[in-house]
Amino acid sequence: MKQIGLLLIVFIALCSCSNSQNKKNQNTANPETYANTITANELKDMLYTYASNDFEGRKTGEAGQKKAIHFIKDHYINNNIPSPIATGDYFQEIPVEYFKGRASNASENVIAYIKGSEKPDEVIVISAHLDHIGISSTGEVNNGADDDGSGTVGILEIAEAFKAAEKDGFAPKRTIVFLHVTGEEIGLFGSKYYTDEDPIFPLEHTVANLNIDMIGRVDEKHEGQPNYLYLIGSDRLSTELHTVSDSINKATVNLELDYTFNDENDPNRFYYRSDHYNFAKHNIPVIFYFNGTHADYHKPSDTPDKINYPFLETRTRLIFYTAWELANREERLKVD
């Protein structure tokens, strides 16, 4: 009996050492390793498909939008990134009535996730809209490569990076949700449905929303200094989020962060015009990542050949680094 007791003590000690080592490994994971899996070439390959004429401008409820949701779903299935809805079911169905006459058919959000290892009930949502404005009256396809094909493929690459970390034993402490919303172009309907009608993850446990809407181009203001990105909303609900975001940028990709459109008196009112707003109105801290408008905005000429893929890579990596920090820091963000 004494020998059995001694063996039990040794076993418990070994398990304790193993758990300590696992925690140490988690703390020493290098996010740069996984950020480097986000590449311009992969983003380009995906976007040339997603913003092709085959997708018919991805108008909410129409055939091209249905192709888009299956493209996104297949990406998650191929990378073994599960859905939080049900096994193999990535679509959050939205009835046609919800669109108040602005769409002719029902539509879908697409949702995938990576479960947190230590605080799985706390959630970081990374969002982008999957829809665009369809085919123009002249029969030309509005491809929406920047708006918001760039955000869509950005999320897919970020998801791959987190999955690679998980495979190496470095799952995020908090859950990461990859939310592709429909109906943005006709009134932010997909994100509103998620937050107001059917939040798959409780809003009170949602730590932050990082929303990506147009990050592949350069606007007129920055033609001479393109290493930039507009950030909107980062300090509206949490000064801590703004501080974390700024410090992560400086420590990693070091973009020029432009807060022009974050001004509460901004006449463009971009803070209210993309999907992050439906999270912000529920008191969830947000960042809206945006390259500004350009001459091809909402035109058939918003095509994938005009995307600056090295810039798209760098900007996507910034969002990954920020999500990594928010997911792995000890305390959740304070709302002040």
TrEMBL record:
Alphabetical keyword list: Aminopeptidase, Hydrolase, Protease, Signal
Database matches in SUPFAM superfamilies: Zn-dependent exopeptidases
Top-level taxonomic group: Bacteria
One BP term from GO: proteolysis
Gene3D superfamilies membership: Zn peptidases
Domain Peptidase M28, residue spans: 109-321
A Pfam family assignment: Peptidase_M28
Single GO molecular function: metalloexopeptidase activity
Signal peptide start and end residues: 1-23
Name this polypeptide is given: Aminopeptidase
